[in-house]
Specification:
Strand content: 15-25%
Helix content: 25-40%
CATH class of the largest domain: Alpha Beta
Bound molecules: iron/sulfur cluster
Strand order of the largest sheet: 15-14-20-19-18-16-17
Largest sheet: 7 strands, mixed
CATH topology of the largest domain: Rossmann fold
Radius of gyration: 27 Å
Structural class: alpha+beta
CATH architecture of the largest domain: 3-Layer(aba) Sandwich
Distance between the termini: 45 Å
Number of helices: 19
Oligomer: single chain
């Protein structure tokens, strides 16, 4: 491979690569605003000016193609002076908004100003004033004074979202961003412009002024909005999720996520309708009880049915660990083969960018962990038929809303002798349930999902529950870190009394006379690895933050969906 020297270090590059790209591959960050690895090169910010020996002038590293034997200096006197001058130009008209700007703490201009500015302005004239707080669309607000005209947002709409909604108007220091006449910035990926805007010119209307970023914790996880499984970060303050942002994974979602995933997949975690503690129906009302009582009552009621009178519906919304335990509970503890889960397919949702028609995160995981009827057992449609015919008398619905899926089933479900629901939030199905057990949300537990590609990815607890808080009592920070649990146990804020489904079922199994010694999700996963060959030799460390590809025939599995 050809090589060149940058700041005294020899590096290899691929033919056609620019200096900034080749340097980035070696972790060398050349300061820049307008360049983005996934967008076309516009070369307008001039921040990446570097000195190349034998070239008469400084060159911009984002558009200068690397060549064999080139000698590049990013820290020479000349390149530093040029960068300082660029920053001075940017700051001429930039408002002193940092104390109230959402971007503060993660702003490239702020960071570079600390590194490259002389600390005071020579500009004494009135700054150019532009429009502030302009809604560009339903989800993004624009501040004209903060914009440095890098054009990243315009190129994102043109090249990634494939929906040209933004453009520059005016010239010189009056230049600004606007939408085309009659257009709004409302494509399904519009909020990615907030992430890539290098300053605070574009802000997320949902998150605006909710918190300073340094007051929040952030945890790597996976979006639960569809089978893509975009890699994301959950940002939390006082045990409440305030925003989701995408996390880079070239194999899955690159730098992006859709607006639906960003906005609609976390508010239920903070919502007022959470099931807080186990509930039993007493004289028509759901009454909160302790876990021991809930386990004892549920076990005793389940014991009163014959094995084939009981059916269980697992869930593509929950983890492999939970589904593995559901399959065990059905087949080994209750002895029923009436087991299936509901496929949630929305043909209107998918697109050619990221979104998939399967609007659940773990359909393949549910398949692989054994959520399927046994030889003589009933699948979903036969379970419903069995209820109609009076053959199925007890139904255990786990982390799904059957009555939201099919409202026609209401009368039928009301006829069951026993209807148990594991749910994180009260929903249509819990209104008919005899027993409601509070399941932890994807943001409150550790576990794994398998996305539509057959990629196994980890979710991590970002929000504390009462149960997790208790379980982690006394655990060292290094052990907490090993298990990926980053939330601040001591943070103030509401903690719900909910548990991961695997843990609820372990408690119920004990009440039914069968003990599982699982203490943590990784122990359930280890057992899964022993039982299902595709998970063999894997553990949470191996899966890591970017996931691993399972050796499975995805087409064969998705054919069932
Ligand atoms: S709004 Fe942000 S991303 Fe768009 S041109 Fe201005 S600075 Fe760049
Ligand atoms: S494409 Fe799917 S997984 Fe990705 S952010 Fe959107 S809903 Fe979430």
């Amino acid at each position: 491979m050809p090589r060149f020297i940058i700041d005294g270090r020899e590096i290899e590059f691929k033919q056609g690569q620019t200096i900034i790209e080749a340097a980035a591959n070696y972790g060398i960050d050349i300061p820049h605003f307008c360049w983005h690895p996934k967008l076309s090169v516009s070369g307008n910010c001039r921040m990446c000016l570097v000195e190349v020996e034998k070239m008469p002038k400084l060159v911009i590293a984002c558009s200068t193609i690397a060549s064999e034997g080139m000698v590049v200096h990013t820290h020479s006197e000349k390149s530093i002076a040029a960068r300082n001058a660029v920053i001075e130009f940017f700051l001429i008209n930039h408002p002193l908004d940092c104390p109230i700007c959402d971007e503060a703490g993660e702003c490239k201009l702020q960071d570079y100003a600390y590194q490259h500015s002389v600390g005071e302005s020579r500009f004494v004239e009135e700054k150019v004033h532009k429009d502030k707080r302009i809604p560009l669309g339903p989800r993004v607000l624009f501040d004209g004074e903060r914009c440095i005209s890098c054009s990243r947002c315009i190129r994102f709409c043109d090249e990634i979202a494939k929906d040209s909604e933004l453009t520059f108007v005016q010239r010189g220091d009056r230049v600004t961003i606007t939408t085309f006449p009659g257009e709004e910035l409302d494509n399904p990926y519009s909020m990615n412009v907030v992430d890539i805007c290098p300053v605070g010119a574009l802000t997320n209307r949902d998150f605006r002024f909710q918190a300073r970023v340094w007051d929040m914790s952030h945890t790597n996880t996976i979006c639960n909005g569809c089978a893509r499984g975009c890699n994301t970060e959950i940002w939390v303050r006082d045990n409440k999720i305030l925003r989701l942002v995408p996390r880079y994974n070239e194999e899955v979602n690159s730098y992006w996520m859709c607006d639906h995933g960003r906005l609609n997949t976390f508010k239920f975690v903070n919502a007022d309708d959470r099931v807080d503690g186990p509930h039993l129906r007493v004289e028509g009302n759901l009454v909160k009880v302790g876990w021991d009582e809930a386990f004892a009552q549920t076990a005793s009621r389940l014991k009163s049915f014959a094995k084939d009178e009981i059916a269980i519906i697992g869930s593509p919304y929950t983890t492999c660990e939970d589904n593995f335990m559901i399959a065990k509970f059905a087949k080994s503890v209750l002895g029923t083969g009436n087991l299936d889960f509901i496929r949630h397919i929305d043909p209107e949702f998918g697109d050619d960018i990221l979104r998939k028609d399967d609007v659940t995160p773990n359909t393949l995981g549910a398949e692989l962990t054994g959520i399927a009827p046994s030889k003589n057992g009933k699948d979903y449609s036969n379970i419903i038929k069995g209820i109609r015919e009076g053959k199925i008398k007890a139904l255990y619905l786990i982390e799904d809303d059957l009555l939201d899926y099919d409202s026609h089933l209401e009368e039928l479900i009301a006829k069951l002798d026993l209807f148990i629901v594991n749910a994180s939030n009260f929903n249509k199905s819990t209104t008919l349930a005899d027993i409601v057990l509070p399941s932890a949300t994807y943001a409150e537990k550790n576990g794994t999902f398998v996305n539509f590609q057959g990629r196994l990815q980890r979710i991590k607890a970002a929000v504390a529950t009462i149960d997790a808080d208790r379980a982690l009592e006394g655990m060292s920070m290094s052990r907490l870190d090993k298990f990926g649990t980053k939330f601040d146990r001591w943070a103030s804020g509401k903690k719900f009394d909910s548990r991961a489904t695997w843990k609820i079922l372990a408690g119920l199994s004990a009440a039914l006379g069968q003990k599982y010694k699982y203490q943590m999700a990784e122990e359930v996963f280890a057992d899964l690895g022993k039982s299902v060959s595709v998970f063999k030799d894997l553990d949470y460390d191996v899966i890591g933050d970017s996931g691993v590809q399972l050796k499975i025939n995805v087409n064969e599995l998705t054919a069932k969906v």
